[in-house]
Design brief:
Strand order of the largest sheet: 1-2-3-4
Structural class: mainly beta
Distance between the termini: 38 Å
Radius of gyration: 18 Å
Largest sheet: 4 strands, antiparallel
Shape: globular
Number of strands: 20
Strand content: 35-45%
Order of helices and strands: EEEEEEEEEEEEEEEEEEEE
Amino acid sequence: SNSLIAPTSLGNGWGSISGLKFDNQSNLWMLNSLTQNPLKMKTADGEWYEYSLGNAIANRYTRGIVIDNNNVKWFVVNGVGVMAFDDNNTPSDASDDRSQLLTTNPNSGDLPTNNIEAIAVDLDNNIWVGTTEGMRVLYASRNVFSGAPGTFNFQRLLIEFGEAVEIVLGTTHITAIAVDGANRKWFGTANSGVFLFSPDGLTLLENFTAQNSPLLSNAILDIAIDQNNGEVYFATDRGLV
């Protein structure tokens, strides 16, 4: 009652907050899932704003908000895709806001599935997503609001072995993504442990499992990195390592 946080459309009276992220101006962006306007923001001065981003994401479960180097907000809309939103650094003025929904449409995202479980932004401002059917990366994030159809699609990473070509991580169920200080990519999976890749995602450096490491389980729920000391935390279905 003291904010713009709204109860869910489920009628249970809950205010579901499924993601929080501060921008570089100390504004707190949040995902208020299962509401008409799930993206909300509280300024450092205590002002609240909410943003209407269309019926496609209204009353959907949202999660995984990240903010890129251009202050664009990216988040997952369950069963729909990935939403990009730019308030042009004028949170109180909706007239210059821009948004784009990226889906499985071959001209607007080209995601392998709308079941997305992880999202991260790397040091080169590329957007990485993990899905139930593999991993994808968006290189042209700057084109997401102005590029022609097909120019802001997520890409597969391909490796050639002689005459054979393989997709990096194939259709592996990705549950978590983290980027370390060297811009390396850490991928958590549903049942194959953790994969560590080079910054470009083309060279496998390590595959940690419950069989070859202290991981308690090969079912990874989340990954977080302490950028001050390089320690990596893995949340598994059997505890934290």
